[in-house]
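Following up on my earlier message about magnesium ion. Here are the inputs again, as you asked, copied directly from the submission form:
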Amino acid sequence: MDIKHLRQKIRQQRCALGPAGQAIAARSLDSHLRGVADIANARHIGLYLVNDGEIDPALFMHWAFTQAKHCYLPVLSVDQGQPMKFAEIKPDSEFEPNRFGIPEPMVSAESLLDASKLDVVLLPLVAFDLKGNRIGMGGGFYDRTLEFTRQQPYDRRPKLIGLAHEFQYSSEIEPSPWDIPLDGIATEKRAILFKQ
Ligand SMILES: Nc1ncnc2c1ncn2[C@@H]1O[C@H](COP(=O)(O)OP(=O)(O)O)[C@@H](O)[C@H]1O
Ligand SMILES: [Mg+2]
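Thanks, got it. Here's what our run produced:
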């Protein structure tokens, strides 16, 4: 199946999950994420607000708040084609929609963080495999934002964990040269760091 049809098929499938299915998946995801030491011990965590039927990391975020961790959401740059930056989110943050209609925290430009400052990035995806290959929505936003990880040793860069429903697994992913590989994946069934 080509990438376009694979994206279409999986996006339809995840959009068809109702609120009850999403809630169950979100609870299991939360417990799997907390079970991986490198994720549970992270202090600075990038995550996302759900869109398009993605699996929801919000429960993990609420747990992270109770542990006094810092959570951040990606913010699209004003300049198209530039890496995304990350804005710290607090329980009382205010939001405004970006050009895709996805809410972003309203923070001053100076307080935006580079992705390189995060310990873990939990990133959404459309399809994953168990070799670290990821297919996103097709904008290449995370590939551009995480490009710097190529130059950094494993221990000194954020761990990149793709979050998905288990049915988003695909054995057929051929990475493109610009794709940034994941260090692990987490679903409602499991959380795996590939290196371990
Ligand atoms: N590091 C990068 N520098 C410049 N362009 C990039 C980079 N990473 C991705 N792109 C561009 O983004 C586009 C979408 O990338 P793709 O990997 O297909 O999307 P996604 O990762 O969202 O599935 C590609 O056409 C590619 O040219
Ligand atoms: Mg890509």
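One observation from looking it over: The first strand starts at residue 44 and ends at 46. Hope that helps, and feel free to reply on this thread.
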